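For the sake of clarity, the format in which proteins appear in this thesis is described at this point. Each number in the token line that follows is a code from a learned vocabulary of backbone shapes. One such record is shown here in full, so that the layout can be seen directly:
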Amino acid sequence: MQEYFSTLAENFANSAPNILTAILIVVVSAYAGIGLSRFLKRVLKKQDAEPGVSHLLSQILKWTIISLGVIAALQRFFDVTAFLTGLGILGFTVGFALQNIMQNFVSGVILLVQQPFKVGQVVNIAGFDGTVLKIGLRTTEMKTLDGRIVFLPNGDVLAQPIINYTRADMRRIELSIGVAYDSDSDVVRTIILDEIKQVKGYLETPEPLVFFHTFGASSMDLTVFFWADTALVSPLVAKDEALTRIRQAFAQAHIEIPYPVQVQYYRTPGKKTTKRKTK
């Protein structure tokens, strides 16, 4: 009996460093997991992530770190290679079966971390213009400008070009205008430049541009470019005000914005050909 206890004490003394090391690894991993999960939750909160999403991601991070610590601690006593191999095969099988869900999940995490847009911002994603309502782990929810609610898989969102209108502090406004052929192009240009300067949110730099570019069927066509401060006015409102001002100024200066004109020829046998213009 004395020999048994002596052997047991000797084995315990030999295993004590491994036991203490394993306990230390588990404790450190537990503290690291808790600390990093809290840090991740604070980061996600600053990025206006959903509380449920923040909690889920922080818990996943915490238990992943703790699990790695436990596996490292067990490695001090026996080889866990076979266990890890089986776990890897199981994970690969589950991941392959749920690859679309996992793709959307990972994409959702990337969206929350990289934050190309936030809830409440106006964006264009996959051809949809609207306001972001929610960024989930699987889908992004947005309300389009015409009132539709769209759920976009996060994998598709991340794979598509994203236009964030809210982050742009200024936008270029484009106007297409046609004037009659007897109009003085210099006068037309001067009137347009004077009127767009009165538009709310108008920016002097970059400077506005007026280009005559086409001899149309019934008009000289031109394009106007100017920039507006999106913090003061929306692009649609700026465009509406600019067109209204230009139309009123043209009316006062007797500059015509012509209707499309067609010339029709009528030919009757034995009679003179007649011509008539229609609008």
The chain has three domains: 2-97, 117-164, 170-252.
